[in-house]
Each structure stands twice: as C-alpha cells, then as structure tokens.
Write a structure and sequence with these properties.
heterodimer; A: mainly alpha; MetI-like fold; two-stranded antiparallel sheet; 2 strands; B: alpha/beta; D-Maltodextrin-Binding Protein, domain 2; 2 domains; seven-stranded mixed β-sheet; four-stranded mixed β-sheet; 40% helix; 19% strand; disordered N terminus
C-alpha cells in the first residue's frame, strides 16, 4: 500500500468516525445518565459532561429499577414470547414458503399474491380489528381437570405469540430462497421414495440455513411481538405478570419522570440485544443485506 | 370481573375425558352479576408507594368479608387510557378503575361507567373537585387532589423588591407582570418563570387554561357545552393568548423548558408554575421556598381541579364495588395516600392526619388554594378532544404562532367535533 492509498483510506475514516460517534452518542449518554441523579443529568445537559461518567455517580438508579418494575419477570416474558414466536415462525413460515415455492397446486399464485399484499398494510392500521378478533377467539382451557371452552384470548401468553407466528415477509423470504434451490434435488429424493414432508426436512431445510438465520434475526428484531413488543401487549395484556420489558419503560413516567431510572432501565434492556448483536454480528449484517436480495 | 364465557366440556357419563363431549354448562358474567371477584385497575404501576396503599385497602376489604375477593392490576399512567379503551372495545373492563377527573364525563357518556351508589354521608366530606359528576350523577370519587401554585424563593423576591402575595391578596395582572420583570432584571435570572412546557398533554389544559379562565375566557361555553366559539376565541381569550405568548417572546419564560420545573430547580428560572407533587423536592433543594397563589387576571385566581378518582364500570357488581369504595374512602386511607404520594388529601379530617396538610403543615396552603381556586375542566364528554386541541394550539401560541389564528382554529376543531357527536348528549 503506497502513501497515497494510505492517505485516501485515512481520510475515509474521518466521515466514518463522525458517523460512528453520531450513532454512539445516544448510547453513551444513556449509560452515563444512568449513573447520575436527575438533578445532575439536567445540570450536565448543555455540555459534554452529559456524555461523560463524571460527578456524583452511583448505581442507585439501577437499584431503584428493581423497586419500581418486576424486571426479571418482564425480561423472562419477553424472552419466552420471543423464543416461541421465532421458533414456531421458522417452522410454519418455512413450510408455507416451501408450499408456495415448490409445490404445484391450484390458486397458488393467488394465495402468494394475497400474502404479499398484506405486507403493504401497516400493523398500526390492523391492530384495532385484531384486538376485537382475539377478544372473541375460542380456546380450550382447564377448570381443574375439566376441559372448558373459553372465549377470549386477552391477557395471556397465547395472545402475544400465536397471532405473530405467521409472517408474510418471512414467507416471502423463504419462498424466494427455496425457488433458488435446484429442482434436481427434489426429483432425486422423489425417485428414492421421499414424500413432500421428508424432502422438506431432509433436503430443503439443511440447504437453507442462511435464510433460516435471516428470518430468525429479522423476527427477533422487527416483529411487533418479540423484543420490541410494545403496542400489542399494551392493548391485549392487562396482567402485570404477563407484560414484556418494553411496556415496563412506561412505569417510570409518573407525575415527575425519574430520568435516571429510565436510563438505567433502558440500559438494562438494551444490553442483552447488544450482546446478541456482537455475538452474531456477521449474521446480522448478512440478514439485513439478504432481506433486500432477489433471486 | 373480566368477561369470560366458559362452556364446560365434560364426558356425558363415566368421566371419559373428552369422549363425546357434551355441553354441560354455560356461564357468562353479565351486567351487575357477581362472580365473587372484584377486579380493580389503576393507573399507577411504577408508583410502588401508591400501589402499596391500594393493596392495603384490598387486604382490609378481603379480610372484612368472605363474599368477595378484590384484586388489583396496576397499569403505567401514560398508557392507561389506551389500555382502558382497548378493554372497553373488547368488553373486558374490570369492576372498578381509576379515571382522571376530566375524563369521567367521556367515559360515562361512552357507557363505560355507572353512577356511584356510595352514601352521600361519605362523599359529602370530600372536596368538590375530587368528585366526578356528569349530568347531575356522581360517577367517581378521588382520594386526593392536586393543586398548582407559583413556586418562588423568599430571598429572590426580596432581592427583586417584589411584594409577597397572599390568598387574601393575590397579585393582580400588573403586579405579576412587574414581578416577572423584576425577578429577571434585578435578581438576574435567565428566565422569570418556568412553565414546564415539555410536559405536553394534559398538563397544558390543566395548568394553562385556568389563566385563560381568570382572564374571563374558557375552553367551552359552559352554559350549553355545545360550542367553544365566543369563549375560546373571544376578546378575553385573545387577551390571555397575547399575554401568555408575550411571556415567551419577551424572554420571561423558556418556550422549550423541561418538565417538572427543572428550569427552576436548576436555578435558571426565578419562579415556576408547578404542582404540589413537586413541593417537597423543592423544599429539600431551597430552604426559603414559598408556594404563592396564582395571580388574579380579572376574574379571580384560578387553578386546575380534578385528579385521579375511582369509578365503577357499567357491568360491575354494584353492591360489591360500593362495599369496596366504602372501605377505601375512609379518612385513614385518604391520609395514607397523601402521606405516601405528597398529594392533597380529599377530606378535612384526613388532612389533620397527614404530616404536611394539617392546620400547621408546611403545605397546608395547597388545601386552601384547592378549596378557593380549583376550577374543574369542562365536565363534558367533549373534553378529551378539547384537551387535545387546546394542547396543540397552546403550543403554537407558546412558539410564536398568531394568537387569533390559533384560537379560531381550535374553536373550529372543537365545535366540529361536538357537532359530529350530536352535542355529546347536551
């Protein structure tokens, strides 16, 4: 590498550093403020001290979080719902994508088109009819050992999980990926006597790890029911025992907001995602890139 | 008591599970029925002290009888109304719930609430502004009240040579304007008064519309509750708007101030218009705190009235809900809420049991201000829209928008909403 190339690369780091700082500042501010009193947060607001862990620092805000919010309960709920939506979503949506991409049946194109059409409807526009719908759906529960037919899914884990298992974008991604696989593999499996289900499990799934990773990551990050779930549980879950972490943020906005505690709480709920991101950094980037990929 | 239809599926005979399931029974909790449970929703998740007092009441109630078992589900305040509206949509309201005073008419009109049957012997002791009344019926009652006042420091006012007002002799408009100029000029503060403009939402109509009313305007014509035209854009309202805007355009107040009177607490503003919930932290910070009455702009000093209250939902077990309320509304619990939250106790007897609101308490003046000046926000179902519209256009005024244009636009939106809802029953 000659001097000119090195200089060019050096200059390229200037805007990248500025951009990195720009995106890091909110996180740095969040962590620094989580260690300060409300009074000091505001006193530091108009200077660089806002981004520095300076002054009267303590972990009092973190301790206060546990007094105000059942943190572990909320975190457990979010992890459980996120896992269930993601795991079942991978199974159901991949099967659906496979049926649409590789099986020949009447109305396939229409069904695929209808599924894609739902992508243009923002979740916010369908949430009210969805609330009404889930409030009247049946479910079989138990009264002791007696099975009972109940109506209404509100205030349950199932209302946070089941409506979000099927995801049009996930189906689209699976279908597009499956279309790119060579048909000869399925034909060979068919000659060996494998049915659709066996072909799917033994041939297609092992060859499709990248798209499974992509869909899993996008589900965790973007689904309105997983890590960032807020509006849906707000409207459908009344019991504190079933609430996810994001709704917990609202616990800090009372007559006078406890800003230091807010920062401590969002630091605590951001850390798990940062760790996941650091561990799966390469897969994350590939997922975002492949989500816009065409076959 | 949430709506829950249960159809028992039982084996027709012999108990073979699910073999030939038959409709054995069907129960549905209908209007006014009792299922032995009394479910309460409150807006105060995240306020552990407040929740603890409610839990104490529930414990006492559950221990006092065997017929009903009460349970509390607290929600975060900022999202509480959305949660209640969603539950109302799906028919899953609890038996009792807390409701912010100005929303009582809307929820009553929408059919979410039923009138209270609590003895007048009990409710008659409560501050009038803690009672939610709609079209002559009592729908809610609150343990506490809140009151705004002008937060100031004695040393600052003395330095500026400003008379300290009293409840008998509050500042006139001229005195208040002079005081603002003096504390900014002579006492050397960046801002004269902090209005906590970042607290958008209910704070705007709660805190700012009483100034409008003191000028002689209002949010709606209360003689009919059918139009805002003439009162929200009349000469008095325009005078209020011009005066209020002047505070910000002339640099007497920060149009982008933080919430919670932080400009005052940080020493950037000499005074603040703030609620009594911020009084104790201010006393901790400054040793010469004064809580002054609001100025009289011509129609008497005014402050907002009506805080969170308990109401009974339309399908609740009325007898059970009334029994719970009669336990909850004792002076002992009214005082306990005040001690734990710093809010104003709703009865005189409870005030005497509190640390700060008794006859010699350091926040006693808040009770007096509430009694003397509290003005309820308009008791109409249209209030939810009025509040939203007023907040939007008050924000425009604060940030330099044309006052007449803003108020006319507010009137047009409010009157159109009232027309669209056929007058909301008026």
């Amino acid at each position: 590498m000659n001097a000119a190339t090195a200089a060019r690369r050096g200059w390229a780091y200037v805007p990248m550093t500025v951009l990195a700082a720009f995106f890091l500042f909110p996180i740095v501010f969040m962590v620094a403020a989580s260690l300060k009193t409300d009074h000091q947060i505001f006193a530091d607001m108009n200077s660089l001290r806002a981004f520095l862990p300076v002054g009267d620092l303590s972990l009092a805000n973190y301790a206060a979080v546990f007094d105000r919010v059942p943190f572990w309960r909320f975190l457990g709920n979010t992890l459980f719902v996120t896992f269930m939506v993601t795991a079942f979503g991978l199974i159901v949506n991949s099967m659906c994508g496979y049926a649409l991409a590789r099986m020949r049946w009447k109305g396939r194109g229409l069904v695929f088109g209808l599924i894609i059409t739902t992508l243009i409807l923002p979740f916010d526009t369908t949430i009210v009819p969805m609330v009404y719908l889930v409030a009247n759906l049946p479910w079989i529960g138990f009264d002791g050992l007696t099975p009972v037919l109940e109506f209404g899914w509100l205030n349950s884990y199932r209302v946070q999980i089941i409506p979000f298992i099927v995801n049009a974008f996930s189906i689209f991604l699976f279908a597009q990926y499956f279309k790119s696989l060579p048909k000869g593999l399925e034909e060979a499996a068919a000659i060996d006597g494998a049915g659709w289900l066996r072909t799917y499990w033994r041939i297609i799934v092992p060859l499709s790890k990248p798209v499974f990773a992509t869909v899993a990551i996008l589900t965790v990050v973007t689904s309105p029911a997983t890590w960032n779930a807020y509006l849906w549980p707000l409207m459908t879950v009344q019991s504190e025992e079933l609430r996810p972490v994001m709704v917990g943020v609202q616990y800090f906005f009372q007559l006078d907001t406890a800003w230091g505690e807010v920062m401590a709480y969002i630091t605590m709920i951001t850390v798990p995602m940062v760790i996941v991101f650091l561990v799966f950094q390469r897969a994350f980037i590939q997922s975002i890139a492949s989500a816009g990929m065409k076959d | 008591m949430q709506r829950r239809h249960l159809i028992k599926l039982a084996a027709a005979s012999g108990g073979a599970a699910l073999a030939g399931p038959a409709l054995a029974a069907c129960t549905a909790s209908g209007s006014g029925s009792s299922d032995g449970e009394l479910l309460l929703w409150s807006h105060n998740a995240g306020s552990p002290l407040e929740v603890a007092v409610t839990e104490d009441i529930i414990k006492a109630f559950n221990g006092s009888q065997d017929a009903l078992k009460a349970a509390l589900e607290p929600f975060p305040q900022d999202v509480y109304n959305d949660s209640v509206n969603a539950a109302a949509l799906s028919g899953d309201l609890p038996d009792l719930l807390t409701v912010d005073g100005p929303n009582v008419p809307n929820w009553a009109w929408a059919g979410h609430l039923q009138p209270l049957t609590v003895s007048e012997e009990i409710t008659g002791k409560f501050l009038p502004s803690t009672l939610g009344i709609f079209q002559g019926e009592l729908y809610s009652v609150g343990h506490w009240e809140a009151a705004c006042s002008i937060f100031a420091r004695q040393s600052v006012l003395e330095t500026a040579g400003v008379r300290i007002p009293t409840i008998e002799s509050p500042w006139t408009r001229e005195e208040f304007d002079d005081a603002l100029a003096a504390v900014k000029g002579k006492a050397g503060y960046k801002y004269a008064i902090d209005f906590s403009t970042a607290d958008t939402g209910e704070w705007y109509p709660y805190a700012y519309s009483p100034f409008l009313q003191s000028f002689g305007g209002d949010l709606i014509d209360r003689s009919t509750y059918l139009k805002a035209d003439g009162v929200l854009n009349g000469p008095e309202a325009l005078a209020w708007g011009e005066w209020f805007q002047g505070l910000f355009t002339e640099g007497l107040s920060n149009p982008d101030s933080l919430g919670g009177a932080e400009d005052f607490m940080q020493g950037n503003a000499a005074m603040a218009f703030h609620g009594n919930w911020g009084a104790l932290p201010a006393i901790d910070l400054y040793d010469d705190m004064l809580f002054l009455p609001p100025p009289d702009f011509g129609n008497g000093p005014k402050i907002g009235g009506g805080s969170w209250q308990w109401a009974v939902t339309a399908t609740a077990d009325q007898a059970g809900a009334t029994a719970w309320l009669e336990t909850a509304l004792s002076d002992e619990y009214v005082a306990e809420f005040a001690n734990q939250t710093g809010l104003i106790p709703a009865t005189d007897a409870a005030a005497e049991l509190t640390e700060h609101y008794g006859a010699d308490g350091k926040l006693r003046m808040m009770v007096d201000y509430s009694k003397a000046y509290a003005t309820l926000r308009p008791e109409t179902p249209a209030y939810t829209v009025i509040a939203s519209v007023f907040s939007q256009y008050a924000g425009d005024i604060i940030h330099g928008g044309d006052v007449e244009t803003a108020l006319n636009a507010a009137v047009a939106e409010i009157d159109a909403d009232i027309d669209a809802n056929s007058g909301y029953g008026f």
